[in-house]
Design a protein that fits this description.
Blueprint: H1 9-12, E1 21-24, H2 34-43, E2 48-51, H3 61-67, E3 71-76, H4 86-92, E4 97-100, H5 103-115, E5 119-122, E6 136-139, E7 142-148, E8 152-163, E9 168-169, H6 178-183, E10 185-196, E11 215-218, H7 225-230
Parallel strand pairs: 1-2, 1-8, 2-3, 3-4, 8-10, 10-11
Antiparallel strand pairs: 5-7, 6-7, 8-9
Helix pairs in contact: 2-3
């Protein structure tokens, strides 16, 4: 019987090792798997490469993972956002690496990784520093730059509803990078607000099929990053 449900956050992140590449879902607060990230902080895995839209806020979630010096490199679109201070401070001291990727290119690099497409050409970043050192090619008199697909050892994703097979639905904009990150990792770990019985999810509403998911844990009352930041909470190991 297929059952991808794990009972503890410790079990959920048990396989994440030092030097892992990890995709973390979220668009700012929306869809950020805060509990899974905090479990990863507790585990203490080091020298991580994180692929995410941004670098977190305050001193919780992804920002706390960075502040705890567990991340060696960020691949993201927005390294500095509202309430983001941890990453900029470390970056300005040359204590963390950054690969800056335009948001649409980031999404397509992840999607390509999940689809088995090794690379693609795009006009985004032409005539900017982001295209420096990359292969350029002309198509129909337009210049394009070559971008390589992104894949990961693990993905940490937040969803709204799951079943024990790992079929997922998302709530509104919390969906963001989640579906493509599920396809592009060797192991996908999901925190779900609710786990239901097989058949309770209309197949037409499934966004991520269970074949892309390895572990699911139910977090009935997930933390809201903005509330933690406002309360000046610090989550450090």
């Amino acid at each position: 019987m297929i059952n991808k449900i794990v009972k503890s956050l410790k079990d959920a992140v048990a396989n994440i090792h030092d030097n892992s590449t990890i995709m973390i879902g979220g668009f700012g607060e929306a869809g950020s798997p805060v509990e899974l990230i905090h479990a990863l902080i507790d585990k203490g895995s080091k020298n991580l490469t994180i692929i995410s839209n941004n670098t977190g806020s305050g001193h919780v979630g992804l920002a706390a993972l960075i502040e705890n010096r567990q991340v060696k490199k960020m691949i993201c679109s927005f390294p500095r956002t509202a309430n983001s201070t941890v990453f900029p401070q470390l970056y300005n001291k040359n204590e963390i690496e950054l690969e800056l990727v335009p948001q649409g290119t980031l999404a397509e690099r992840i999607r390509a990784g999940g689809a088995g497409i090794p690379a693609f050409y795009t006009r985004t970043s032409i005539n900017t520093l982001l295209s420096k050192g990359k292969e350029h090619k002309f198509f129909d008199d337009n210049e394009y730059v070559l971008e390589y697909a992104l894949k990961a050892d693990f993905s940490l994703v937040k969803c709204n509803i799951s079943d024990r097979y790992g079929n997922l639905t998302y709530h509104a904009t919390a969906r963001n990078f989640g579906p493509i990150m599920c396809t592009a990792a060797k192991e996908t770990i999901v925190q779900s607000k609710k786990i239901v019985e097989i058949g309770d999810i209309n197949p037409e509403n499934v966004i991520t099929p269970g074949i892309y998911v390895d572990k699911v844990i139910e977090i009935e009352n997930p933390a809201h990053e903005s509330e933690l930041v406002e309360s000046q909470i610090r989550y450090l190991c």
